[in-house]
Structure formats: C-alpha cells, structure tokens
Amino acid sequence: MSERVVECRGVVRTYQDDAVPVYALRGVDIDVGRGEFVSLAGPSGSGKTTLLNVISGLDRADEGTVEVDGVDLRTLNETELSDLRLRKMGFVFQSYNLIPVLSARENVEFIMQLQGVGAAERAQRAEAALADLGLEDMSDRRPGEMSGGQQQRVAVARAIVTHPAVLLADEPSANLDSGTTEELSQVLVRLNEEQGVTIVTATHDPMVMQYAKRQIKLRDGQIVEDSAAVAA
Fold it and tell me: 191-218: per-residue pLDDT in tens?
C-alpha cells in the first residue's frame, strides 16, 4: 500500500439506548492509502456513516486509534480537531450543506476564507475548481437557482479546492436521480485518477460503489469484506 492517509486500529463506537450500550463499530481495522478511492458499503445501521464520522473526528472512538495524515486524533482537543478538518479534510454531504445566500463561487471560497487565503487567490482557485467540474457558467448563481446535481458539484468543488489529504463523502448521491448520480460518480473518478484525490465515501448506492476501486462492506459494525484483501 502507498503512504497511509487513514489508519484505524481496533475502533469501537457505542451509543446509549435506554442506558444499554449499542455497538455501532466493533473493533474496526482499516488503512486507506494516498490516492485510493474507497467505498464503505452496507445496509442502514451497518456502521458505515459512523466510521466516516470517526475518521473525521466528528465522533470520538470509545476504544482504538484513528490517524489521519499521520495525526493521532486522540491527541487533539476539539479546537485542534476543527483545525485538522479545515486543513486536511474535504466533506461532501447528501444535503449539500451550501450556504443559501452565497453564490456558487462564494460557497467554494468560504473554506479558503476560513484558512486565511487572500481574496484574489480565493477567487482564482474557486473559479478554476468550478470550471474543472463544468460549472464555469454557474459561479454567480445561488444554490436555489441550481439543480440538485449542480449543487452537489459545487459541494465537491468546495471540498477539493483546498487540496485536502482526504475527501469524505457521506451518501453523496442520496438526493440525486440515476443520471445525475452517474455524472457525480464520473466526477469523483476523474478527481481520483487525474488529480490523485484520496476519496472515502459511505454509500448504499450500487452505481457509486461500482466506480470505487476498493469496496469495504460492513455489517453490524464489523468489516465483513474488503476487496483489497481479496485482490491481495
């Protein structure tokens, strides 16, 4: 495997249900190498979204270790975790999470503004990212003036414009029709193959799964199949 971007060892995550612990993850081990395109697959309740949240630090593991780009998340406080997400991770959600009052370009610029990137560079990089995703004519439109597929591509542009170590996508095709899902999948493949973007997506959509070069299937909080192990 190439240099590891994500490394999980013995990850356990539980939730309380009427004071009874419910295991969302049961001792998960996973490595993701730089430049991989990985899908976390499984039915609802399998643990795939929880695993994505633990990798991002949005959820804390109860047991085990999680490292992202060489940083052990256990050593970070909440402020440091937020900074790590800002500097090292890009996010794409099923609900797009765009700011309604901002244009497409301003939405893409937003993370760079938080990073302290200057206005001229922000604008240039945002326009380039939108053009790369076929949205050069949409830069001044607000989310309400775009289709679901266009909004999701803006979200992808926002996620990658800072060149994160890893792009995390949670059910990115959930609100898209099959044709738009195909377009989004092709965008992810191109980003992975042409720009070397490391992608980890949680999905139950077979169309998205088939484009990932590695599939990890979860059931009841455990990995039951990893195509990398099969290939090895």
Answer: 999 989 999 999 988 888 999 999 999 9
User: In whole numbers, what is the pLDDT of the chain averaged over residues?
Assistant: 92
Residues sharing a CB contact under 8 Å with residue 38, sequence separation 6 or more, in sequence order: 32, 199, 200, 201, 212, 213, 214, 215, 216
Question: Under DSSP, is residue 162 helix (H, G, I), strand (E, B) or coil?
Answer: coil
CA distance 99 to 230: 42
**Length, in residues, of the chain:** 232
Is 157 strand, coil or helix? helix
Residue owning tokens 């049961």: 26
**67-121 tens-digit pLDDT:** 999 999 999 999 999 999 999 999 998 888 999 999 999 999 999 999 999 999 9
CB of 68 within 8 A of CB of 84?
yes
Q: How many CB atoms lie within 10 A of CB 183?
A: 18
The highest-level CATH class for domain 36-53+77-231 is alpha beta
